[in-house]
Amino acid sequence: MLTTQSPPITNTRATATLDVGGMKCAGCVKAVERQLKQNDGVVAASVNLIAAVAVIEYEIAAVNPDALAEKLTARGFPSQQRNLESRSNAPSLADRRRLEEKQQLWQLAIAAILLILSGIGHWHHLGGPEIPVLSTPWFHWGLATLALLIPGRELIIDGMRGLRYGMPNMNTLVGLGTLSAYSTSFAALLMPQLGWECFFEEPVMLLGFIFLGRTLEGRARGKASAAMEKLIALQPSTARLLGETREGEDAGIEIPVELIRVGECARVLPGEKIPVDGEIVTGKTTVDESMLTGESVPVAKNIGDRVAAGTLNQSGAIAVKVLRECNNTFLARIVAAVEEAQTRKAPIQKLVDTVAGYFAYGVMAIASAVFLFWYFLGTHLWPQILTPEMGTMAHGSMAHGSSVGTSPLLLSLQLAIAVLVVSCPCALGLATPTAILVGTSIGAERGILIKGGDILERVYHLSTIVFDKTGTLTRGQPELTDWQTDNENPPPNPLPRGGAGQVITNNQILQIAATVESGSNHPLGAAIAKEAQRQELTLLPATDFHTEPGLGVRATVTLDRPLVACLGNRDWLAENGIILSETACAQSDRLAKNGKTLVYIALDGELAGWFAFVDPLRPDAKDTIARLQNMGLETILATGDRPEVAEAIARELKIDRCVARVRPEQKAELIQTLQQQPQTLVAMVGDGINDAPALARADVGISLQGSTDIALETASIVLLAPSTGTLAEPTLASAISAIQLSRATFGKIRQNLFWALGYNSISIPIAAGALLPGFGIALSPAVAAAFMAFSSVAVVTNSLLLRYQLRMS
Description:
50% of the residues lie in helices and 17% in strands. The chain is built from 29 helices and 26 strands. Strands 14-26-25-24-15-22-23 form a seven-stranded mixed sheet, sandwiched between helices. Strands 6-5-7-13-8-11 form a six-stranded antiparallel sheet, with no helix packed on it. The radius of gyration is 35 Å and the shape is elongated.
């Protein structure tokens, strides 16, 4: 299985996605995976039943994905490699589902007609009149034959094909049961001297219940994937390409959106979806971004503002310059991330798939054992089950028109067929992917990208959550509150002076600092630059910029003469051989205890001044920390700031522990140290840029900057929901929503698996006749088929309840 923790794929390897049809149960999933993995050069393969895809990692020189698709097709799983050309030519997911539902309804309609005719033929068993012709065994033979040849033909062929290639599945079990009932009844019809009873109604009823269950299950699956289909449908299929002028009333020429290129311009009229990620070059409007951000209030957009594909242009005609091609838009990356999540399995599913791979073999072995037991031993130990009285009792527990035969052979055969039919590998196969499908789709709707079932399981077992400070617990927009030179508290060495011999002023210190930070994108540097701009201070000539992440910046700035300026924290100054005076240390300690972040500036190796910043806490930070602690999670603050600042914030937010003066690479080491403790799974919440190593190292990385490429690549959970209407500023409370969604989804997986395993554990013994000697209760094959169909529908329906459960919570 491919995970975010696996090493990057080298240029000798690649990944491919195959659309795989014909999968009906977990046994099919295991069979497809086995068929793929047994090819030399296939490194890994992961197959998803609900999404009907297989993702493979392979050696480029040894494997041709198209050849793998052809091999799967020959084995009864119609497959095609997914690429841009095939996706554009192939029918959409919704179209394929409608076609499948139409076929299922057709099969169900024919089976229902045959079932009604069979019921009319057995009307006399319920006290009604015996209808000529319709009550004869030959008529029921005809109905059973039609049931096998028309609606049941594909099912039986697929089941026998699976058995031939060593890949038995649910169709194999149903096919064996149906053919066994039909063959035995046909033998009884041709050779009445055997004294056997015909039960041609069993194949008809069995197939009827199977197709009813699959139709209901298909409808439920459609509801489960509806959110994903809506997400895919948001991408417009066409765009209006403009000429060079972009002016006037040029409406543009309409072309497929995949043909538009970066740098070209598209016209978007009011009420239309924006087809590309781009920048507005003419016009102004308001844009509904709720489909990506969850923010219901439209956002005003002017020239220079960026817009995202799939959002709705509301009020004005605009021209948009294309910044990304259609397969690389923000929406396309969200869809790709959700699709990837739906193919990745929870570790608990590995065991289920392993069991499912041998499930059909196990059921066939049990059915054989049941037949041999009752034929050679059971009917001799409990002969009363063959008496008319017991037969009547058992008849009451079965479908109408069917009874336990008085022949040991018929009884043994009916119980063996019931075992084949009642077992349901389909419920096992649907347990995990349906829950993941619903959970990840809900997350995408709410601006939360969860990258797979393995993430859901890790979140469920989380014990510790580590927070970055700047941009995570705080707004990430620090404000410069005060600054000054060190003239009032001079160090032992003379202060640097300007060319005229004057002591450098506060404004000159600010001007130098803004110049040094012009080569950096750090939030503290942005605050310095903003203040310098407010005071209309121009940048000075500067060269030799050097940035050390987590420490500071160095550059050579010319102020009458060249000065080597170092701007950063105390550790940065120490690395450059600059020692703070006791007076300067005392003053900075006093500010730090008030929660202010200190940045020092040194010129030519001597301390020249300092800057104090306040980065306001997010308004929901305190409540978020408290709620996480109520959920049983230990909270830790990890920051590169001074201990005094970190402790002040930790006290205010009541965080359990804080670790200060931690560089970005040291955060990953901190995560690793925490993970070495017994039964400790660690989540990291950060901004997805400087915290990328820690996000990748953590068991669960949660990024609060969902629009950045690095976040989509390194974080396990990406938060897109905004706090101020912009794509890049989600609320901290979204992290709680992500954890709650993950826990609720994994809880559904556990419920589904409990139901699927529990159902088979109880139904198979009952079908095998465990209650027959003591209570006279047995299952006819038709009733067994009804139970089997119900189990699959129950699993999918339970997954759908996740949406309503989250609404109520």
